[in-house]
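Subject: design request, 285 residues
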């Protein structure tokens, strides 16, 4: 399999690390490292079938590209190489300088103490989180969300009611203004008469009788007949049976009778009415 990421020089195909190939191996002649042989591997590109060769590197415990492809950039390999270089320089300094050894040890101890403190903080944080009731937290969050939604709904309902009330008032004002503009001015209603006023009015027949009296006179009215029609007495009855009429100055019930009342001057029609009333009264007696 491919020991690293590479790119074919012929077609530009990328070959990733770990891709399996049917490789051919051979031992490199006249090359070795501390008695360890170096091997060469032959593979072919999966796209253009160009031959690619790479060999082992026992010194760096790695592989080196030899022909047919280029090795891609690997940050991890560069980091490892940089760490090895720093470590080698430090060993060289400590080998010739004892004070540098003491300084490096002091730095390492401080770094180790900081690491231990950070580790303890992480442990404490994990212990605090271990005692946290996540169900209670979720329940509290859900209750707070429901309360917030309820308040928002109440505010929306109040705003809606205020808008509806405002629109209703505006519509009523517009309707009243339109009615005032379209309705003509009406005369004030007449005063309703008193229901008992009809009793104070003169009947129509009475008004007709008054008009008749003004034109032709009274026919059989009570005031004019009061002096002419006299109730019959025993004396009148005796006269009708054959006795003499009483004298004008004769006594009536032991008292002197006054002079006969004078009839007021009336018209011929009124006299005719008086005569007819006298006949009626005599016939009734």
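Subject: RE: design request

Done. Sequence follows.
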């Amino acid at each position: 399999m491919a020991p690293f990421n590479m790119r074919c020089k012929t077609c530009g195909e990328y070959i990733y690390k770990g891709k399996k190939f049917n490789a051919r191996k051979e031992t490199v002649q006249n090359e070795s490292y501390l008695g360890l042989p170096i091997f060469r591997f032959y593979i072919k590109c999966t796209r253009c079938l160009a031959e690619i060769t790479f060999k082992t590197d026992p010194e760096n415990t790695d592989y080196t590209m030899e022909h047919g492809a280029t090795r891609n950039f690997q940050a991890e390999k560069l980091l490892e190489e940089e760490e090895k270089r720093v470590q080698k320089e430090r060993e060289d300094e400590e080998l010739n300088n004892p004070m540098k050894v003491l300084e490096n040890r002091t730095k390492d101890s401080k770094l180790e103490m900081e690491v231990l403190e950070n580790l303890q903080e992480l442990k404490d944080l994990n212990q605090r989180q271990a005692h946290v009731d996540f169900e209670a937290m979720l329940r509290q969050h859900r209750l707070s969300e429901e309360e917030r939604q309820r308040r928002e709904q109440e505010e929306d309902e109040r705003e809606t009611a205020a808008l509806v009330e405002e629109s209703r008032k505006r519509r009523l004002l517009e309707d009243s203004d339109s009615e005032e503009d379209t309705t003509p001015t009406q005369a004030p209603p007449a005063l309703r008469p008193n229901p008992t006023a009809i009793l104070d009015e003169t009947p129509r027949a009475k008004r007709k009788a008054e008009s008749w009296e003004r034109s032709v006179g009274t026919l059989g009215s009570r005031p004019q007949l009061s002096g002419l029609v006299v109730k019959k007495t025993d004396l009148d009855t005796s006269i009708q049976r054959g006795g003499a009429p009483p004298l004008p100055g004769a006594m009536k019930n032991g008292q002197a009778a006054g002079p006969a009342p004078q009839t007021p001057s009336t018209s011929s029609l009124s006299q005719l009415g008086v005569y007819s009333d006298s006949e009626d009264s005599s016939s009734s007696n």
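The longest strand covers residues 24-33.
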